[in-house]
Design goal:
Pfam families: Kelch_2. The chain is mainly beta. It has one helix and twelve strands; from the N terminus they run ββββββββαββββ. 4% of the residues lie in helices and 42% in strands. The longest helix is centred in the middle third of the chain and has 8 residues.
């Protein structure tokens, strides 16, 4: 390949603010971006096609009139890659109101169908599980495939939500114990050792 460059390239993202939880899906990248003011967050989703890494990326804001205030109901949303390239999850705290500093009532998982561009609610953290995360100062969301994991300081285990996209059923919520932390009790993701026979 004549264009091969073994060094990392630096280029402007051309986004209004720092991208949050970018994910690679097939030949494009999806990310969330805060397009609000310094006083009030306002989240939007952006997409770019990976064409030529030597050129600046051209981002397109994804929006649909039917979405309404989908980005307003979630506090600190994150994107998580789903099990196939036609879906993506958005996870965040469900706000109790539209007030500037409104408290969250639970964690909500929404699934976006990238073909129809329709959102649907697929998971709502059970209250007894959510209470374990309310007091934590640090909270992480990560996942892959059809699983979304939640980790927090002083919780000592992962909360796992599992989706079965094949038949449209959700497998639900459960605790996963015995997960090694990073010394601070906070799990930030998975280590993936690539092999020819590896399955995510």
């Amino acid at each position: 390949n004549d264009n091969y460059n073994p060094n990392w390239l630096k280029f402007s993202s051309n986004l209004p603010s720092k991208p949050r939880s970018p994910i690679l899906i097939s030949d494009f990248i999806l990310t969330l971006c805060d397009v609000g003011s310094p006083w009030r967050s306002q989240w939007a989703m952006f997409k770019t096609k990976i064409v030529d890494m030597g050129k600046a990326m051209q981002w397109v804001r994804l929006e649909k009139r039917d979405w309404g205030d989908i980005f307003e109901v979630l506090k600190r949303p994150r994107l998580v890659k789903a099990g196939n390239d036609s879906k993506v999850y958005m996870v965040g705290g469900l706000k109790s109101s539209y007030a500037l500093q409104s408290a969250c009532t639970t964690i909500l998982i929404l699934r976006l169908d990238l073909e129809s561009m329709d959102w649907e609610e697929v998971g709502r953290m059970p209250m007894e599980m959510y209470r374990c995360f309310v007091e934590s100062s640090k909270f992480k969301v990560f996942g892959g495939g059809n699983r979304v994991c939640f980790s927090a300081k002083r919780v000592g285990r992962l909360a796992l939500w599992e989706d079965n996209c094949e038949d449209g059923k959700t497998l639900g919520w459960r605790w996963v114990a015995g997960v090694p932390g990073n010394g601070d009790g906070l799990c930030r993701g998975f280590t993936f050792e690539a092999r020819l026979d590896a399955m995510p």
